[in-house]
Amino acid sequence: MSESYVPLISSGVAGPLGVLHLPRLWLKSSLEAAGKLAPGYPGCGQGYDMMVVNGLGLKADAVKAFIATRPTYPQFEAWIKTQPGVNLTKGNIHKLNVSIAGYIHPDEVRKGVLAANGLPDDGSVLPDAINVNNLDDWYEFHQAVLK
After folding, report:
1. Where are the chain's structural domains?
2. With a threshold of 0.85, does the pTM exceed it?
3. Rounded to an integer, what distance in angstroms lies between the CA atom of residue 121 and that of residue 112?
4. Averaged over 67-72, what is the pLDDT?
């Protein structure tokens, strides 16, 4: 029996390159390549994943293909540095990080995650997608592993 895992690296985490969400993208895609990503999670989906891929000037298919070789996280960052057209300037990374940190989910996503966690939608929870996604991951982990 194959186990599946809820990815618990937050989008608010950066690796040595300083890019928010990049470690989570690596983890989700690595778990997907190994057939171990929890149901409902995309390996390389649309939201933050594509913000990072596009923001760095990478190609999604190339990212997926490289991660399918099961690199370590430092190997993934080293590979990124070799990609044609990649933009790793401090200014570009800062701009990307600001867009990630400032992203807000649509109301229905926030409301759904808060309701699943038994929390009121009264403004008492930080509304940015990083925090909402963290709540969602912790809930899913609890349901899959601890309940």
Report:
1. 1-88, 104-147
2. yes
3. 9
4. 97
